[in-house]
Amino acid sequence: MTHFSKIESVQNSMVKHAYSLKVSKKAKESVDFLCEGFHLALEALVSGLRCRFIFATKGGWEHPDGQRIHLEAQKAKVKYFEVTSKIVSYLADTVTPEGVFVVVEKPQPAWPSPPFSKILAVYQVQDPGNMGTLFRSAEAFGAQGIFLTEGCCDPFNPKAVRASMGSLFRLPFRAGETWKSYMEWLDQNGFHSYALTMKVSKPIPMVRFSTPMSIWVGAEGSGLPDDLAAACEERVRIPMAGKVESLNVGVAASLALYFAQSQGPVS
Description:
This protein is an alpha/beta fold and 267 residues long. Helices cover 38% and strands 21% of the residues. The longest helix is centred in the last third of the chain and has 14 residues, at 249-262.
């Protein structure tokens, strides 16, 4: 039977560090972020990220997923501990926590590597749930990476991490730069840029995407600014029926990425 070192106090230095990663300002400044739940803990381990330590309740470690996490932690030589339900309540960001947490080192920002294909570029999206969805859809529909402009929410926000379902761990991304700096990189590397906007745009079924491509999506409510959309090669929109005026940014980006993928590569 495996012996787990136990932590019973919320004053423990590792518990306090994990808790600090829930505080927005401290989380942004830290080199670490916090993952909660079986799925994310396992994804962090198997994605090759550097995990600092893992907490789980007795029941968490006895769960089949907990047993697998334990095996992966042993392989990666990650420290693991049994914690109390009080500590779980202290750290949890979900309504019904599974009792598993892992503190992970943030992956380094990275530019996509050639040969280039598709980039999702995100302008000032501030909702963490939408941010996580954008990562998940970008990976699902073959994007090589994501560019997040200044004004976007922190992709390591706990809700964004959960919504990404592990895609955040695998997909290269850059964050915090101006849209002009990203556009300069895209132009230098031969990308065709498309602005997803309702203003003076072409229905996406009529668009023939060229690769490599970037698809730009904008902030909830205000969308893309006119000067950014004008800097793109073409403006495109998702056709909608009825009186619907707009789609959630995660839904719109998913549809655009899928449509671009379904065409196949065009150079």
